[in-house]
Design a protein that fits this description.
Elements: E1 10-11, E2 17-22, H1 26-37, E3 42-45, H2 53-57, E4 66-67, H3 71-76, E5 78-79, H4 86-91, H5 94-103, E6 108-111, E7 115-118, H6 123-136, E8 140-142, E9 145-153, E10 156-164, E11 170-179, H7 194-201, E12 206-212, E13 216-219, E14 229-239, E15 242-253, E16 257-259, H8 261-275, E17 280-285, H9 292-305, H10 311-316, H11 324-331, H12 345-355, E18 357-364, E19 372-377, E20 382-383, E21 388-389, E22 395-397, E23 405-406, H13 411-432
Parallel strand pairs: 1-11, 2-3, 2-11, 3-8, 11-22
Antiparallel strand pairs: 4-7, 5-23, 6-7, 9-10, 10-11, 12-19, 13-16, 13-18, 14-15, 14-17, 15-16, 17-18, 20-21
Helix pairs in contact: 1-6, 1-13, 9-12
Length: about 450
């Protein structure tokens, strides 16, 4: 619930600031730093021990911070309404981020798919550079500061109530506030959905929250293949028995089913379909470069080359070793037996398995495993030109708390950086009455 100043919380002496930002993740750091650049007195509150906890572990500690594809290509990777981000991307985009990081000592490199990483392969370096940048512009960062509620008066944000370790509730008065608390994924890093609670308490609509960019649970689970990564394969999603869409790239066999980049890219559709009660299946094409006639010709060549060999060696010529047992079981073969077992209907079934290894999807990973949150504060309640709330004056939103998410490839972090920058700029102009500013 929204807290009023009269409810007994202590007001901190000299606690009036121009802009207070909740959450020191990528969006919060960019919001705070940009607001301070424009002359605002900025307080950045972080409930964890270190700022940017989630950023420090993203991408297995490497941090795919952005993507060098042009703006239109970014928009194609974003859900549910990519056009909402046009102004934010025009204000601050991939080239701006790279320039900022290089100015603070972080060189970058571009890899396959135009994905950008720190040259050091250390997400930690990115986080530290953004913290240093924000501090250099005068941002005051307060750690272990857990925001309890927002303070509003006559439909406008006027401050917030927070607590610190061993201290009671304290009230911060501020001209503008920015909610940059992240989503619900990786809750151990501090992303526990606080921003959704603050938004809902002040009258904002929250679109259904669900985990995204997450692995899937399947039937069957191929234990012998656990840990195997297959490259240049195609994963197809089937809904209620009908082909829906496909992704090409890399997949991984896991202890519960499937993971890897192409699974993550389909996971949003899978999670939504399961929530709607639809029958969800996926098929894995292990030989997408070969159509059925060409694959059959390949099989015949391998049969000729392994006429006097075992089934195991025949299958090894076609498959990764970890899948030999999977295919042997599916075909009813004795791996140590002669390759001539594979004939007639079994040969046809082998071809079909190579093109359509089928899985029933029975579940998906939890919030602890999801990379991002789908859903959030409704775009209908936010002005895309400023990131300002349409419900509460002087309140802004940035990052994963907003109902925006994207595929893998650096797009989600760019959303956070861009919306953070625009929210910080807008809040500073509102708070200190600026009419112009220079991107620097």
């Amino acid at each position: 619930m929204t807290t009023k100043l009269s409810e007994g919380a202590k007001t901190v002496p000299n606690s009036v600031c121009d802009v207070v930002v909740i959450g020191a993740g990528p969006a919060g750091l960019l919001a705070a730093g940009r607001a301070a650049m424009l002359g605002a007195r900025v307080l950045l509150l972080e409930k964890m021990e270190k700022p940017a906890r989630k950023l420090r572990i993203t991408g297995k500690g490497r941090a795919n911070i952005t993507n060098m594809r042009p703006l239109e290509a970014h928009l194609q990777e974003i859900h549910p309404e990519p056009r909402f981000l046009r102004q934010a991307f025009q204000a601050f985009f991939n080239r701006h981020l790279i320039a900022l990081l290089e100015k603070y000592g972080v060189e970058t490199k571009t890899e396959r798919g135009d994905r950008v990483f720190p040259a050091s392969d250390r997400a930690w370096d990115v986080a530290e550079a953004l913290v240093d940048w924000a501090k250099a512009h005068g941002v005051e960062i307060v750690r272990h500061a857990k925001v309890e509620s927002l303070v509003t008066h006559e439909g406008a944000f006027t401050g917030l109530v927070f607590t610190r370790t061993h201290l009671g509730p304290q009230t911060i008065e501020a001209r503008c506030g920015i909610i940059a608390t992240g989503g619900q994924s990786y809750p151990a890093t501090g992303s526990t959905g606080d921003g959704f609670r603050f938004a809902e308490a002040t009258g904002h609509r929250i679109e259904a929250l669900r985990p995204s960019l997450v692995g899937i649970e399947t039937r069957p689970v191929h234990e012998s293949a656990q840990g195997l990564t297959v490259k240049n394969v195609q994963l197809t999603l089937w809904l209620d028995g009908k082909k829906h869409c496909s992704e090409f790239g890399e997949a991984e066999f896991t202890a519960k089913g499937l993971g890897g980049p192409i699974v993550l890219r389909l996971s949003r559709k899978i999670v939504d379909a399961m929530a709607a009660g639809r029958k969800v299946e996926v098929t894995l094409d292990l030989k997408p470069a070969l159509d059925p006639p060409k694959l059959e010709a390949r099989l015949l060549r391998e049969f000729d080359a392994h006429t006097c060999d075992t089934c195991r060696n025949l299958l090894r010529a076609l498959l990764p070793t970890q899948l030999v047992e999977v295919f042997s079981d599916a075909l009813g073969l004795d791996p140590a037996g002669p390759s001539e077992q594979v004939k007639g209907l079994k040969r046809k079934k082998l071809l079909n398995l190579l093109k359509e290894l089928r899985f029933e999807v029975t579940g998906h990973g939890s919030w602890e495993e999801a990379i991002v949150t789908a859903g959030g504060v409704s775009l209908k309640d936010i002005d895309p030109r400023t990131m300002a709330s349409k419900k509460i004056d002087n309140l802004y939103f940035a990052g994963e708390v907003i109902d925006l998410d994207a595929n893998t490839g650096g797009y989600n972090l760019q959303i956070a950086f861009s919306t953070g920058w625009l929210a910080g700029e807008s809040a500073a102009r509102r708070a200190v009455g600026l009419t112009s500013g220079v991107l620097s």
